[in-house]
Amino acid sequence: PNVDMNGLFTAEIPRIQVKPAGLDLHELKADLRTHGETLEVRQFVAKTKKGNIEIAGQSTLPDLNFTVEGKNIPLNIPKTLEARLDLALLIDGDLEGPDVAGDVTIQNATYTTPKKTKKDKKKEQEQEAAAQAQEAAELKGTTPHSSVWEGTTLDIHAQWPRNVWYRDGLSKIETSGDV
């Protein structure tokens, strides 16, 4: 509650890969300014192969007020997902419970179900056992809760007119949606 920051952060980064999200960003430029409780994102822009992603806004922490815009953003998770999308999001709320609202338009995508190996099946069983253990602990009230996720609100409108494919083995299904 008593944030007090003073300074500036500028950076030019040739390339950043965010592999879990399938993002490959180039020529990232950032210019952030802070004074007291105020955080201003004067510039945060990165290029992708076919478009840009940009974050902007000014907030008095812990409150948030940022926009995220992107055109032709490619997502590529090898052997699972290839997609290209546009986004226009507003992030507000506060640090303990961010609110994310806006639009995501999927231009094209292909999701391929991954083939399960013995190692994958074993990992799946371990995750299931861990989930059951956590559920039991929650019933006893012994696990800490993440207040950020409990307080987060999502109001995202996603649409894809067509050209979004689901593939499983020999099956190929084209979808469209407005969710």
Describe the protein.
With 179 residues, the chain is of the alpha+beta class. 16% of the residues lie in helices and 65% in strands. It has 2 helices and 9 strands. The chain has a 9-stranded mixed β-sheet with strand order 1-2-3-4-5-6-7-8-9. The longest helix is centred in the C-terminal third of the chain and has 23 residues. The mean pLDDT is 88.
The H/E string reads EEEEEEEHHEE
Strand runs, count: 9
Going across the major beta sheet, what is the strand order? 1-2-3-4-5-6-7-8-9
Spans where pLDDT lies below 50 across 5 or more residues:
none
Protein topology:
Layout lengths: L4 E14 L4 E14 L1 E10 L4 E9 L2 E15 L3 E14 L2 E16 L5 H23 L6 H5 L1 E16 L2 E8 L1
Parallel strand pairs: 7-8
Antiparallel strand pairs: 1-2, 2-3, 3-4, 4-5, 5-6, 6-7, 8-9
Keywords:
single chain; 179 residues; alpha+beta; 9-stranded mixed β-sheet; 2 helices; 9 strands; 16% helix; globular
Would you summarize the structure shown here?
By secondary structure, the protein is α+β, with helices and mostly antiparallel strands. 16% of the residues lie in helices and 65% in strands.
